[in-house]
Amino acid sequence: MLRCAATVGEAEGEVTLMRNAARRVSLRAAFVLLLVGSLALISTSVAFAQASGQPGGVTAEARDLHKLYLLVLTMALVVFVLVEGALAFMIFRYRRRDDTLPPQTHGNNLLEVVWTTIPIVIVLVLFVFSFITLVNVENDSKPQTLTVDVQGFQWQWAFTYNENDLGPGSDPNAKGTFTITGTAAKEPTLVIPVDEPVEFRLKSTDVIHAFYVPEFLYKLDVIPGRDNRFTVTPTKIGTYTGQCAELCGLNHTLMRFTLQVVSRADFDKFITDQLAAANKSAQRP
Ligand SMILES: [Cu+2]
User: Fold this and answer.
1) CA distances from 235 to 1, 27, 218 (A)
2) pLDDT < 50: residue spans in the chain
3) Which residues surround ligand 1, an ion (CB under 5 A)?
4) For residue 200, which of 179, 184, 186, 220 has the smallest C-alpha distance?
5) Are 45 and 74 in contact (CB under 8 A)?
6) What is the mean pLDDT of the chain?
7) CA of 39 to the centre of ligand 1 (A)
8) Span from the CA of 243 to the centroid of ligand 1 (angstroms)
9) Greatest CA separation found in the chain?
């Protein structure tokens, strides 16, 4: 009898060991599945975010902003798929089959901690990356900056260049200036060199306007009495459109302009031509 009881005990012990081993294997499989699934979901979301049609911009700063956009969109997609997936799973798996009340659960510390921690981590990650991007984009201490004074007025723009402030090699004692002023009939063209930091100093003589070139992925208000400025480093030669992005009165829609990003040689030629024209008109009686 005793031997028989010992044999039964040993058999039960073996069964428990086998069950524990099976549980470990299935836990490991679930973990691997979760890891592979998460990686697949993240890479699919990154690919989807990249293909979502948001243009990458034409400046170094826009590239940073575009990266931030992709990060935010990827995180949003991952959260969306996980939340909606869990919701759909619950709806179908635990749908009502009869009138029996399901087991009622009141509070679960682990779940509370998990669903409080995850949003906090997401917000912190977004805050840190947004802050780093903002500091980079709004860093106005970049060296060798060429400056253009941008004046917004009802309802056009005036762009002023100073001969002593045209980037590397410009004569600090030169005094020539010229202004390109837009009119209702003729929109102005703003010309800047490629691969050089260009600072825009924004001023308004009347109401609030906003200086906006969509390809910069950035805009800044032009406020009377306030010296707003920002710097961009264009990386792509081309012609782009700009516009006022703040409703500033009846003819707000007329506040469009053209932006040309050109090579340094073309920019120097543009400056020489404009200064010559400005000198000629100044000498006219
Ligand atoms: Cu406007």
Assistant:
1) 89, 51, 15
2) 1-2
3) 209, 244, 248, 252, 255
4) 220
5) yes
6) 87
7) 46
8) 8
9) 130
